[in-house]
Design brief:
- Among the domains are: 50 residues; 46 residues, no CATH class.
- It contains five helices and no strands.
- It starts with a helix and ends in a 14-residue tail after the last helix.
- It comes from Tepidimonas taiwanensis.
- InterPro entries: DUF1468.
């Protein structure tokens, strides 16, 4: 089987359907956020479905092969995302996001100090946005000095 844009679009639609199906029944035992836990998987499913539909309608017949080294970066990104998910609660949102952003920046050729500054700014900025503006409770992890 050859991989083309339309096949990828079909897989994206199937993934979106699975994500929507699993996310539809998410309920929190108590209300601690204004939107609840269902909003993120349903929003993500909508975006993935839109991209999959676009690939089905506008896809080319054959996808171009990945350039040299791309598969290694893709595998490294998958490992980084897995590590981010595993470290999210124990390290906390700010630290794990800053670390993830720094390593992703390096993966795409950024300089260490630029990636570290950008990662720290992204971790702190997103924390403030979600915590203060959206009122979403995020784990503090190692930065939880109050407990």
């Amino acid at each position: 089987m050859f991989l083309n844009d339309r096949v990828l679009g079909l897989f994206a639609l199937l993934l979106a359907a699975l994500l929507a199906w699993k996310g539809w029944d998410l309920q929190a035992p108590f209300s601690y956020e204004p939107v609840g836990p269902r909003a993120f998987p349903l929003l993500l499913a909508t975006v993935i479905a839109g991209c999959g539909a676009w690939l089905l309608v506008r896809g080319r017949e054959h996808a171009e092969p990945n350039p040299p080294g791309a598969n290694t970066r893709i595998a490294a990104m998958a490992a980084l995302v897995t590590g981010y998910a595993l470290a999210f609660v124990s390290l906390g949102f700010i630290v794990s996001t800053a670390l993830m952003a720094t390593l992703v920046g390096r993966l795409f050729g950024g300089r260490w100090h630029h990636c570290a500054i950008g990662g720290a700014g992204l971790g702190l900025g997103l924390y403030l946005l979600f915590d203060k503006v959206f009122e979403v409770v995020l784990p503090m992890g190692v930065l939880n000095f109050g407990s």
